[in-house]
């Protein structure tokens, strides 16, 4: 840990907390490509060192370590992007205390350090999990927020804190409600695989490379065309673009915003698996098992507001691109580690 290592002079400076993670590394890449001075703060509990870029400074630190946080924030930043959170919905229902401390207390530590150092702009990784069971589709930002899991609750509570910090301390925030993040950098510059993934696409990829035996399909008796769950998958490159656009929006308008980020397309579990078989050429065995508690049948976003406020539109989120870009990475890593199927 070397707080001196961050915040060097030159260009607009952004601190990306969680920038060694799956989404965070794509965000760091986008800000670097835009010419920002980037510093990544990450405790590497979920992030990977191989996701770090030579052009970005790096501090290994934890958002619960207020001394490190304060010394890094004291170096002066134009904005903070915060993606460091635990995100396993199922685990959050078994260990809520872990999510309270890391997601809520950790974020409050960041906000308090920002207030102390006069950093105004905060880009926050929120989630579609704030909505819970949909009462209508597609889901827009006016949809009721009734999270079904504690992870979604932590994200919604943080959004409420943000409104107070805006009112009382002049923070401007963008709360980006991701739907299902998927895919990898189309230019193949990010190779860090998620550790012990539970999400569908990385699970499919691990089966395709032979690290897992089969994909368990959590229920095929949903009221959907093929009976399996339908989700709105959005490419991480599209998500990264929205982080940059939302910062520019806040700087230009001095307003905060809360927007959905989704492709507006619903794809079923079996469609994902069939597409993966076609693109990878691998059999990808499956087993139909019971429904996973708390899973809605269908979740699809309305991203109209992000389009209106930011001019944002998903460009890489078609199912073939999602799977092809993920397969590029998994296949290369599995070849390199010799753990190929
Ligand atoms: C997708 C679909 C499963 C795995 C979660 C979080 C949400 C967000 C995204 C952070 C569902 C099915 C999955 C498997 C399966 N996280 N599935 N077999 O549950 O939509 O959303 O991740 O922001 O907050 O809740 O994503 O990838 O787990 O599931 O059949 O091995 O795939 O039932 O229909 P989910 P997921």
Structure description:
With 341 residues, the protein is α/β, with parallel strands linked by helices. The chain contains ten helices and 13 strands. It has helices spanning 22-33, 66-73, 89-92, 96-117, 150-169, 200-208, 236-253, 269-280, 304-310, 319-337; strands at 13-17, 37-42, 57-60, 79-82, 121-127, 172-178, 180-182, 215-218, 230-231, 233-235, 257-261, 267-268, 286-289. Strand 1 (13-17), helix 1 (22-33) and strand 2 (37-42) form a beta-alpha-beta unit. Helix 1 (22-33) crosses helix 7. The longest helix has 22 residues, at 96-117. The radius of gyration is 19 Å and the shape is globular. It starts with 12 loop residues before the first strand and ends with a helix. The site of UDP-4-deoxy-4-formamido-beta-L-arabinopyranose has 20 residues, from helix 6 and strand 8.
Record the SSE blueprint.
Elements: E1 13-17, H1 22-33, E2 37-42, E3 57-60, H2 66-73, E4 79-82, H3 89-92, H4 96-117, E5 121-127, H5 150-169, E6 172-178, E7 180-182, H6 200-208, E8 215-218, E9 230-231, E10 233-235, H7 236-253, E11 257-261, E12 267-268, H8 269-280, E13 286-289, H9 304-310, H10 319-337
Parallel strand pairs: 1-2, 1-4, 2-3, 4-5, 5-6, 6-11, 7-10, 8-13
Antiparallel strand pairs: 9-12
Helix pairs in contact: 1-7, 2-4, 4-5, 6-8, 6-10, 8-10
UDP-4-deoxy-4-formamido-beta-L-arabinopyranose is lined by residues 87, 89, 127, 129, 151, 178, 180, 198-200, 203, 215-218, 229, 231, 269, 292, 295.
């Amino acid at each position: 840990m070397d707080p001196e290592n961050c915040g060097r002079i030159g260009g607009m400076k952004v601190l990306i907390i969680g920038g060694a993670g799956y989404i965070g590394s794509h965000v760091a890449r986008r800000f670097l490509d835009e010419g920002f001075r980037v510093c990544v703060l990450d405790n590497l509990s979920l992030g990977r060192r191989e996701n770090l870029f030579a052009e970005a400074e790096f501090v290994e630190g934890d958002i619960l370590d207020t001394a490190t946080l304060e010394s890094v924030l004291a170096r002066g930043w134009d904005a903070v992007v915060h993606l460091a959170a635990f995100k396993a919905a199922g685990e959050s229902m078994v260990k809520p205390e872990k999510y309270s401390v890391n997601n809520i207390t950790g974020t409050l530590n960041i906000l308090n350090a920002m207030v102390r150092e006069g950093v105004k702009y905060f880009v926050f990784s929120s989630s579609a999990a704030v909505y819970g069971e949909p009462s209508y589709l597609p889901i827009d930002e006016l949809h009721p927020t009734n999270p079904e899991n504690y992870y979604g609750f932590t994200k919604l509570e943080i959004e409420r804190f943000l409104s107070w910090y805006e009112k009382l301390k002049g923070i401007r925030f963008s709360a980006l409600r991701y739907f299902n993040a998927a895919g990898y950098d189309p230019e193949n510059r990010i190779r860090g695989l998620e550790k012990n993934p539970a999400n569908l696409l990385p699970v499919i990829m691990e089966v395709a490379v032979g690290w897992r035996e089969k994909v368990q399909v959590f229920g095929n008796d949903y009221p959907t065309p093929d009976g399996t769950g339908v989700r709105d998958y959005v490419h991480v490159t599209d998500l990264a673009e929205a982080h940059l656009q939302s910062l520019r929006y806040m700087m230009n308008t001095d307003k905060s915003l809360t927007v959905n980020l989704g492709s507006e397309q619903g794809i079923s579990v079996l469609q994902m698996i069939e597409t993966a078989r076609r693109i990878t050429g691998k059999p990808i065995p499956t087993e139909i098992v019971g429904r996973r508690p708390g899973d809605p049948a269908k979740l699809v976003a309305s991203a109209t507001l992000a389009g209106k406020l930011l001019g944002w539109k998903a460009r890489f989120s078609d199912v073939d691109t999602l799977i092809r870009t993920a397969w590029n990475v998994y296949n290369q890593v599995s070849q390199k580690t010799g753990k190929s199927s």
